[in-house]
């Protein structure tokens, strides 16, 4: 098939060169954006008198018919075409003749693909926003349903202090809110129209770029035509935001894997999100959480691959930039799939509060409260810290816990100890005493839930 760009060259390329050059298998998913962008371009050309108004109307109608045929299945992509832009223009020209050939006036595939990609990622960002919001709502619901569940909080993966399970879950909601904010920020910078930048230097036609951008709901136009066609910061920024999002999903997945193990047994996953072993009949493997954890590296790789592809490119457009779509599409697809699985997996997991409390009671995680007890009685914190550590060491030697340590032994370390020490080091009381804002007391966690819900209303 003759290439639409044939002229300076014969347009006859080697078959393997065609395969290397072709991108329609990747960029055909942007057909809606390509057609909408072309309709806006035709409208601008007609408005400015660059082409006859009747030709512009015919182009818009012809493009709409192509869109309808693609949506209905009456028209299929021709994979011998170089890219989605050439496919649409070829079909349009076949149907409208010379009128179809007018569409590409005052634009290049360089600014056209930049336009399509911005529009496509802008649409994808809306879906990502909805999925992130859904997961946050699930986490808030899980928190509300388990308000009395006490678990050990960890540092260095060692039991540290008692916390409410809902506070731990809400920490991920806070991360996801920031992820959503990062996505919104990159969309603001993405929503700038490059159309009219042409190949790199603009055009000799009296175009109205602002009008065309407005038809496509862009906030502004690219003010430098070279930057307009060579910029892919918006891809890299979106992939960076998605990498951070995936890192958060991976951390949560890691905890799901740990919590669902027999060693922790803090939760049990629904059968819908686990698999069995091919040889060990007792196994219930958290494969979905593991896959989300693993796919995080894939999104990182997409980002690093594109950063590497761009690091040495001179201005303006280079064919290397065709690699942008495969990387960013994969990152978006992967993040969307992981969010779609994570939300119902978290929503259907069964929380086991008795196991959490048992773990909390067995790790001396109320030792800080023991020290605070002495401080409130007037002892300097460092002295109280040392005494509490010595008591913990003695408990370990004696096979006791702080709650069962005899008052006589306590008083052997300090006369400040009285019977009320047992109330102060009760695990549930230790949680409720964390009254500082953002802390783990019930009142504080309820405030956090209300705050997250307020953020959701403004998303």
Task: Describe what this molecule looks like in 3D.
By secondary structure, the chain is mainly α. It has three domains: 15-105, Fumarase/aspartase (N-terminal domain) (Fumarase C, Chain B, domain 1); 114-150 and 163-200 and 227-358, Fumarase C, Chain A, domain 2 (Up-down Bundle), CATH 1.20.200; 361-443, Ribonucleotide Reductase Protein R1, domain 1. Helices cover 62% and strands 5% of the residues. It has 19 helices and six strands. It has helices spanning 15-21, 24-27, 31-47, 53-72, 84-96, 109-145, 165-190, 209-215, 225-230, 233-259, 287-310, 323-348, 353-361, 367-376, 381-398, 407-413, 421-424, 427-432, 442-457, and strands at residues 150-155, 158-164, 192-193, 220-221, 267-268, 350-351. The strands form three sheets. Strands 1-2 form a two-stranded antiparallel sheet. It has a two-stranded parallel sheet with strand order 3-4. Strands 5-6 form a two-stranded antiparallel ribbon. Helix 6 (109-145) runs parallel beside helix 12 (323-348), helix 11 (287-310) runs antiparallel to helix 12 and helix 14 packs across helix 15 (381-398). It starts with 14 loop residues before the first helix and ends with a helix. The mean pLDDT is 94.
Question: What is the count of β-strands?
Answer: 6
Query: Helix amount, in percent?
Result: 55-70%
The CATH architecture term of the largest domain is Up-down Bundle
Radius of gyration: 31 Å
Number of helices: 19
């Amino acid at each position: 098939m003759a290439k639409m760009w044939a002229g300076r060259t014969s347009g006859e390329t080697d078959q393997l060169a065609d395969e290397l050059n072709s991108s329609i298998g990747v960029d055909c998913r942007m057909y809606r954006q390509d057609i909408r962008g072309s309709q806006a371009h035709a409208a601008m050309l007609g408005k400015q008198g660059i082409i006859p108004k009747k030709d512009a109307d015919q182009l818009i109608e012809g493009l709409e018919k192509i869109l309808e045929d693609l949506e209905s299945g009456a028209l299929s992509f021709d994979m011998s075409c170089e890219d989605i832009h050439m496919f649409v223009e070829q079909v349009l020209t076949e149907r409208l003749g010379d009128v179809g050939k007018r569409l590409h006036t005052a634009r290049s595939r360089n600014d056209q693909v930049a336009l399509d990609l911005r529009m496509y990622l802008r649409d994808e960002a809306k879906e990502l926003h909805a999925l992130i919001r859904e997961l946050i709502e699930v986490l808030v619901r899980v928190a509300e349903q388990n308000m009395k569940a006490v678990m050990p909080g960890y540092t260095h993966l060692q039991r540290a202090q008692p916390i409410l399970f809902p506070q731990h879950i809400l920490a991920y909601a806070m991360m996801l809110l920031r992820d959503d904010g990062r996505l919104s920020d990159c969309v603001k910078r993405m929503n700038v129209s490059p159309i009219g930048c042409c190949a790199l230097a603009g055009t000799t036609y009296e175009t109205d770029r602002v009008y065309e951008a407005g038809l496509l709901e862009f906030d502004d136009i690219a003010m430098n035509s070279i930057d307009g066609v060579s910029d892919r910061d918006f891809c890299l920024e979106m992939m960076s935001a998605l990498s951070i999002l995936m890192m958060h999903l991976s951390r949560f997945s890691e905890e799901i894997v740990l919590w669902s193990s027999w060693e922790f047994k803090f939760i049990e996953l629904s059968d819908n999100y686990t698999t069995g072993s091919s040889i060990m009949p007792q196994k219930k493997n958290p494969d979905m959480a593991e896959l989300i954890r693993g796919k995080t590296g894939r999104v990182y790789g997409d980002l690093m691959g594109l950063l590497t592809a761009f690091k040495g490119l001179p201005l303006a457009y280079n064919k290397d930039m065709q690699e942008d779509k495969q990387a960013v599409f994969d990152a978006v697809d992967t993040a969307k799939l992981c969010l779609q699985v994570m939300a119902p997996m978290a929503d259907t997991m069964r929380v086991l509060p008795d196991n959490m409390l048992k773990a909390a009671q067995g790790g001396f995680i109320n030792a800080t409260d023991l020290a605070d007890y002495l401080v409130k009685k007037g002892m300097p914190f460092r002295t109280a810290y040392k005494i509490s550590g010595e008591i913990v060491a003695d408990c370990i030697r004696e096979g006791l816990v702080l709650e069962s340590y005899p008052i006589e032994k306590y008083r052997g370390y300090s006369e400040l100890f009285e019977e009320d020490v047992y109330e102060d080091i009760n695990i549930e009381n230790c949680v409720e005493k964390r009254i500082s804002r953002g802390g783990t007391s019930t009142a504080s966690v309820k405030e956090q839930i209300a705050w997250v819900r307020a953020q959701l209303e403004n998303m």
